[in-house]
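hiii so um. not sure if this is the right channel but i have a protein structure encoded as tokens and i wanna go backwards to a sequence. like what aa goes where. can anyone help
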């Protein structure tokens, strides 16, 4: 059985600067992989390359064994769906926005959605909990609700691979957990392969099967593996240059990262003296 996603020796440069170099990893059905790393390490660039927005300098990307460079954008959109950080303002209802996910399946000279398209949109709006908002303007709902609408739109594409670029970056902790719990549930229910960019390492630890930690210096992968294998004090300090401590979450038993700030160290020294 071929992987949903396979990346082989991928490299990318921008204005002679190496952003990604010799990137290799794969992802399978029902698996969630988080891409982590410091700012400028190439996380979003990697997503743009997988989406064919950017073209790699070298290397191959395969979706179910097929090179994406041999696929049209329409063909690729039938296999992968991307949810970006925020939804751009558009003058349409939530339902109309979600139905955009069916565009890759429109036939030649088709200008309107079919009954099947509408049924799929309603199915995923209900699954994401936003069906009650279907007639509301996409611009008049909350940030968390817009992200749910973006996920519903992506799901109407019925993708093999769901890609999310920092879907929780502008949300409070309640909506962050809501979004990630939903994605975790969908991964199992729909047997999706999920590739997600996250800045919050503790959230990445809680909601990922595997992590890919980008170096940030030379464009390479620093380490890939389970949360326990990747999130070590040595790895985080080497890549992020931050003083941290790692303990197990008492509930999930996943690694939990604690900052060691200079302020806290100064207070400790004051208390001792």
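sure thing!! here u go:
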């Amino acid at each position: 059985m071929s992987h949903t996603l396979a990346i082989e020796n991928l490299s990318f440069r921008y204005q002679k600067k190496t952003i990604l170099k010799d990137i290799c990893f794969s992802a399978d059905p029902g698996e969630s992989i988080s891409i982590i790393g410091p700012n400028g390490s190439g996380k979003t660039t990697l997503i743009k390359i997988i989406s064919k927005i950017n073209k790699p300098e070298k290397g191959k990307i395969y979706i179910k064994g097929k090179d994406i460079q041999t696929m049209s954008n329409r063909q690729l959109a039938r296999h992968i769906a991307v949810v970006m950080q925020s939804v751009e303002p558009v003058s349409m209802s939530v339902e109309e926005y979600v139905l955009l996910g069916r565009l890759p399946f429109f036939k030649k000279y088709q200008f309107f959605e079919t009954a099947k398209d509408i049924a799929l949109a309603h199915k995923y709006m209900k699954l994401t909990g936003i069906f009650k908002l279907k007639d509301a303007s996409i611009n008049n709902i909350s940030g968390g609700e817009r992200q749910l609408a973006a996920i519903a739109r992506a799901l109407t594409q019925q993708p093999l691979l769901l890609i999310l670029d920092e879907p929780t970056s502008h949300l409070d902790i309640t909506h962050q957990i809501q979004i990630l719990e939903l994605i975790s549930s969908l991964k199992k229910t729909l047997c999706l392969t999920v590739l997600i960019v996250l800045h919050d390492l503790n959230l990445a630890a809680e909601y990922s099967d595997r992590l890919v930690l980008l170096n940030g210096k030379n464009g390479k992968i620093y380490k890939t593996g389970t949360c326990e294998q990747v999130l070590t004090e040595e790895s985080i300090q080497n890549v992020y240059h931050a003083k941290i401590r790692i303990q197990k979450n008492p509930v999930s038993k996943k690694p939990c990262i604690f900052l060691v700030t200079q302020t806290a160290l100064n207070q400790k020294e004051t208390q001792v003296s």
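oh and Residues 93 and 135 are 5 Å apart (CA to CA).
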